[in-house]
Predict the structure of 3-oxoacyl-[acyl-carrier-protein] reductase.
Amino acid sequence: MQPNQNPASLAGRTAVVTGGAQGIGLEIARSFVDAGARVVIGDLNMDAGVAAVEKLGGTDVARAVRCNVTESADVDALLAAAIDGFGSLDIMVNNAGITRDATMRTMTEEDFDLVISVHLKGTWNGTRKAATIMREAKRGAIVNISSLSGKVGMVGQTNYSAAKAGIVGMTKAAAKEMAHHGVRVNAIQPGLIRSAMTEAMPQKAWDQKMAEIPMQRAGEVTEVASVALFLASDMSSYMTGTVLEVTGGRFM
């Protein structure tokens, strides 16, 4: 992979996006395709993955692979699909995630373990396996999706907040390990982003969150995707180990 003359371009590059069949992940994939990349989506829901490929422009620019990010072999197969299908692995976005919200008193051990496994182990699998490939090329960008919940902690999210905070620490540690190999590792912490999931929230909860946002509006998935594009591209060529908040100023 050669540096592009236009630092915002991803022409000639291949990206993998976990949890890429919908929501923020799909919008990140779309922004990458629009910038000239080919994208491989990893998702548990293959029907949604196939539909996403069509939305992105078909199999010439996108592929979908069923992937459980907690399974090492699944992540190996996902990255192999990028190399076999499009010739390289230049960008890795670890976005796959779930929520199992409950107060600490009522949360089950299973729901704690599952959220930690998907977010933290899943991001570790994606980061370490992508880094192994990228270090051979002496170049690559890894973007990990954390959350504002990992900065401040949210009621009912001891599992999710812990996992998302862990992603920040993991990102910084991996960035230090990989910097001299030419591989950059950065993270994004979205705040309240308008999606099917957040719009299903009770009105009272929505209003409470809105009151905390200086910009007085929710973010859009496109506003997270554009930051992912920045971190994946040469626009951020001298940035590694950073955490960018996309929050409208909430909890500065």
